# Entry
Amino acid sequence: MRALMSENSLILSRVDDSQADTLIGEFADASWRQCPAYACAAAAQIRAVSEYVKITHGDELVALANVRIKKLPVVGTGIAFISHGPMVVRKGGEFDGVVFCAVLRKLSEYYSETRKLCLRIEPHVYADALRDAVKTGFANAGFTRQAGNGYQTFMIDLAPDLETLRKKLNGKWRTDLNRGERGGLRITRSSEAEDFDRFAPLLEQLADKKGFLAPQDAKFFKNVAAQAGLSDNITVHLAWNGDELVGGHIGSFTGDTAVYLLGATTDKGRNLRASYVLQWAVMEHAKSLGMARYDLGGVDEKANPAVHRFKKRMGGIFVENLVICEKMPAQPHSAIIKGAEYLYRKIKG
# Structure
């Protein structure tokens, strides 16, 4: 049946957030970026609209996607963006390139052809073994790839037992972990608002020191966690030296993948190796939830070599995601979109 699947045999329909929240639990490749609480908050940041579509083949659910839509005033056209989707791998199943391509064609038929929007997709972070199949799926569905590099990260396979995972750590990293554990740090874990508030000053201090801006900061994820439904679990781990907070980590535990979202330590926390103890506690928690892997949240060796080295030493595999792929609508809508984006870039400098 799947060998004969095409966009013509698929049915696309809209679902509300509560339905989507339930359906997300059926997909192994679910991402925190696709969950209603995050998707709605992220859309609101750019004054976009968040919506969900499901795709079925007969009675079988084959795909689900959150789409954030930003329209240009008056003309009606704009951009439809799917972040780390669409979800196509059912729990207990495997990635199917035929299904993936058919789903992409159905999405482009609906958004690019019917609604006259530019459909942009930043695909889910699949294993490197599937990279060629994902790339082929986009090419066969008529998408073009933007220039530049995709999301880069280290991915830790959580299938081995904890003892084996610990042995896979780089010797220097493991030594620092041992030192941190001997220091008697206490790790707490929760999704309560007050713990996000406790972590926020640590991140702000780090941002000031390093000179970076985090639009999706601790306050943002506190609000996401407060709205999270069945599909997502945004959790904060805190490291304490006695009654003093010295480090924190915010992570997502969705589908079969845990993701490192934010982390920060104080100067004292760095001396106590709090970041090592926190990361190990997160790995233990992810294992206890049955997560298949741990995504270390992105790396950039040139811009931040120290963080790249820290994550590389955790025993994961380097993974580079495909860049954003897009399907433009027909003229004159594509020209309007390109012109509007050109003017926006000029104004922003």
